[in-house]
Here is the input.
Amino acid sequence: MSRFSLGVGLLAVAAGVLAATPAALNERLAAYRASGAGEPSTNRGAELWTRRVPSPEGAPRSCASCHGTDPRQPGRHATTGKAIEPLASSAQSDRFSDPEKVEKWFKRNCTWTWGRECTAQEKGDFLAYLSRL
Here is the structure.
């Protein structure tokens, strides 16, 4: 196989991976709208990302507490210190491709951070923000 053929093949694979992500995101956003959410807002998503709320331990928490202020970079869990892969789909193209994982992590992270589950609107806003980066 020539270098050209190999390069074209790798580009095709990369394009296929990147093409799958917007469709998966659009499906999630459509599901949230079907649940009563309005149009997602990247601005609201950015505000939610840094919103600080009191925690049971007393120190305020936000999404950025673990994921960092730049979701394109790796984060670290505030309590356990465990490494967290970047959340932005530009840094990890398959990040939102599995709807079950998306919902699992929204439930877990919203509950840990805010003490409640996120609404469909908040989820849509988060995804709009994270997919814009």
User: Anything to note?
Assistant: The mean pLDDT is 84. The domain at 3-132 is CATH 1.10.760.10 (Cytochrome Bc1 Complex; Chain D, domain 2). The longest helix spans residues 3-34.
